[in-house]
Amino acid sequence: MMLNRAFDKFILEKRISGLKEVSISDYRNTLTRFLRSFGNTEISQLAYDDVGSYILGLYKSGLSRATVSTYVRNARIFLCWVSAEYGLSFDATKVKIPKSPKKVVHIYTDDEIRDIFKSIESAIPWITARNRAVVSLMLDSGIRQCEVCDLLRTDIDRKRNIMKVSGKGSKDRMVPIGRVSLYLIDRYLLQCPYESSYVFMGRTGKPMSRNAVKLFTYRLQKELPYSFSSHRLRHNFATNYCIDHVRKNGQSDVYDLSILMGHESVETTKKYEHFAHEIIAAENSISHLDGVWEIEKMTEF
Question: Which of 54-68, 111-125, 168-182, 237-251 has the largest mean confidence?
């Protein structure tokens, strides 16, 4: 069987298992280059070295290391499925996923958060209210773009300040929602001209699309002097969760955070624990040099 044919079966199985179209689209987009190279190759003829050449080609094409990592990760998922279904001449689990470069997460200050919300403006008042509610949820609850778009009014439990979201793989989970976010959602709902079971609506009366979230966050990024995106809001939620819990309880509760984030493994979440401890350590550091000289009395330089 050719790899192209196997990929069609792979996608069909994912659909049958209930994988969302957004995730299906991600597989298609990230594996296009791989299938362009090996789609007409017999499964039995694909070699480990071929995969290595593909990875080197990704680097040479100028893609970022993070993008290469995503492409290779999805290629390995596909190849592991092929191996289980039809067999490969090599162990697909041995395909190494390049590590994404470590980047310091920009944690928004209180003033920056206020600036973000002030910068959210639209010519249509209810759209302004909607976008502010969306940003508040991503920053306050750590939910993804697709989870924002799929949120139903009945998913919000106002008595317990929690809400149900449907994450990757159609897996439901409970996440927190603060009083400010609830206030902004209610303010938006009072102005929204459409009645629907969905919380967030688009301009035409249909549920808000993922692309609409991307568009307004992209426009907002151009208005701000620092990096901004829906994913950065999710990073901020996770890092602040760890910082707040360390300061209050002396530990980051990273296991609970992994559940709130919808991560398959706690290992994925541990990077936020590291960021949080990094920030706390820097803020609590005592300058030895400041103890050598009193800055007010410095006359030696």
Answer: 111-125
Question: How far are the Cα atoms of 16, 92, 191 from residue 24, in angstroms, in the given order?
Answer: 11, 21, 35
Which CATH superfamily is 110-282 part of?
A: Intergrase catalytic core (1.10.443.10)
Spans of all domains in the chain:
3-94, 110-282
Cα-only R_g, the chain: 23
SS3 per residue for 270-282? HHHHHHHHHHHHH
Average pLDDT over residues 60-81: 91
| Per-residue confidence (pLDDT) for residue 253, from 0 to 100 | 85
Say if CB 223 and CB 109 are below 8 A apart.
no
Confidence of residue 30 (pLDDT cuts 50, 70, 90): very high
Nearest-angstrom CA–CA distance, 5 and 69? 25
Task: Tell me which architecture the domain covering 3-94 has in CATH.
Answer: Orthogonal Bundle (1.10)
Name the pairing type of β-strands 156-157 and 172-176: unpaired
Q: Which two tokens stand for residue 143?
A: 């939910």
Cα–Cα–Cα angle for 44, 50, 53, rounded to 5 degrees:
170
**pLDDT number for residue 121:** 93
Do residues 39 and 5 touch, judged by C-beta distance below 8 A? no
Q: How far apart are CA 265 and CA 292, in angstroms?
A: 46
Over range 127-137, report the average pLDDT.
97
Q: pTM for the full model? A: 0.74
